[in-house]
TrEMBL record, chains A, B, C, D, E, F:
GO terms for molecular function: peroxiredoxin activity. This is Carboxymuconolactone decarboxylase-like domain-containing protein. Pfam families: CMD. Residues 28-106 form the Carboxymuconolactone decarboxylase-like domain. The lineage of its organism: Bacteria, Pseudomonadati, Bacteroidota, Flavobacteriia, Flavobacteriales. SUPFAM superfamilies: AhpD-like (SSF69118). Signal peptide: none annotated. It comes from Tenacibaculum jejuense. It comes from the Bacteria.
Length: 117, 117, 117, 117, 117, 117
């Protein structure tokens, strides 16, 4: 597995476990909601992942972008679709999104190396 | 035409005209890009409008939300799809998105009154 | 009741009802969480309301500020405590918070007129 | 005086007075700093006003934009310079800045009507 | 001392010193205000630290979060109170706050290792 | 060349090349606009670089700040002018800008080491 992707996933899992082992119900429910919100509904999983990606990109959250790139890649999103999504993020959110676009393209390459389509 | 929708469109058109009549090339090109970015591509117009909507919602820009609700409505997005998009925005962007969700639902109703599907 | 406070509450209630009458579970659960998060816990209701207020202020959400001013006022927060909370918001969030501080002070006066302590 | 400009200035003055009459030292000092920061220094007043304008624009604070348009106009900034500043804001901050650009152009016209250069 | 906490504090001190040795009065005064704003007042130091923490969390500033975790820990805030504060931040600011919550929990553990309560 | 500056520039160039080799026209045009917007116009290159710097600073984008520090340094901006620009950013954007100010001062020193004026 690509070191970049693996490190990201391991840190994420380790800390999520610690957070969920605390007694805080509000945080637990937000984590649960996160799973529900991206499930198949009136919109497809793929569309929802792209919605999560563009929201993460304009809010400039690298870890959130990486997470949605990962799930988008697994749900069959192509590089062209990902780039089109990121182009809307860059237009709406401005050139301050570009550094996150650079890291997104780098992470996407790591995903491609890890599991070639 | 619904007064709410009409007023929004008239102000928007009037001011866009003034802005584009200035000699500023950078602004003119950004306005042009806005048209290109939402055109049919690897992703459908409908998906792109939802991407524009969710980006506008998490960045909490009422006028941008109204604009994308209008174009989304015209490209056949259903109320359920719009609400699902806004639910992702509210989850990713937090409860501060809720006041914008209220105004979005109000604007959507104005669109429905104006042109029943 | 102060017209300002009444109008705010009426619009809020009317739109919340419409939103909650839709079939969107994610949004319903976020609304529920909002109630739970500010309930007495390891921290008092009053402290939590001030946390909600400062978060709303630095994120510059007027409706969220108004909502937390209302509940803070009802849970016995004094004007001095409210101003101290807003001063931290203005320092952390910068002078762009000042226009929201102006409207917060105006809304607080409306609350004082409505129900003198 | 243009009604738009006058109303803005009156509300601003009235609320600032109320805020400064409270006993909160932190807020008072931030208000003082605001005056100092835009005074002639290594950079000219005009350049500083444009810096304040672009910062207000990318942070999408209409009242802050109006304030800096007013002071920029009075310190001799031309419409072309203002538009160039706003074009950088729109590029860096994205198309979500456009609704604020519309209102900025409208406010600038009100300033021009009030005191023709 | 925990390496994580030590490195953070050393870099912070070194750079603050450089910044304060420049001739910029506005920056110096903002640094001073920062000390005043969190001093005992109408609200307790502990409450103010939690206000600083939640503001830093919703604005997603890791260094600011670390700083307030450090001072909150020293003023006797418990882990449960910290988590409750962060749960309000995550609800108000949305799931984009979660990556910062992960790093906050990690930093808190470093503080606990350094000086067990 | 300073390692810090060199690494920043190399990563930036490498990723920009990858991004521009994709078929996405919207992104390409935004990259082009970025060049045009900072060219001599009604405002000087130096003023425009400072506008780009303050916008990047209040939006808290470290890579954007580094980029504008680099171009500002090359266009003859002095340390005092840079600090005055950053002081406006810190006032308008709040104390959450301070961590970025620390890294900006560090990057500026790397630029000074690399090419003494």
């Amino acid at each position: 597995m690509s070191k970049k992707v693996q490190e990201f996933n391991e840190y994420r899992s380790k800390m999520n476990e610690k957070i969920l082992s605390s007694d805080n119900k509000v945080i637990k429910r937000i984590f649960n909601l996160d799973t529900n919100a991206y499930a198949e509904g009136h919109l497809s999983v793929k569309t929802k992942e792209l919605l999560g990606l563009v929201a993460s990109a304009v809010l400039r959250c690298d870890d959130c972008i990486a997470y949605h790139l990962d799930t988008a890649y697994k749900s069959g999103v192509t590089k062209e679709e990902m780039m089109e999504t990121m182009s809307i993020a860059t237009l709406v959110g401005g050139t301050i999104v570009i550094p996150h676009l650079r890291r997104a393209v780098e992470f996407w390459e790591a995903l491609e190396e890890e599991t070639p389509n």
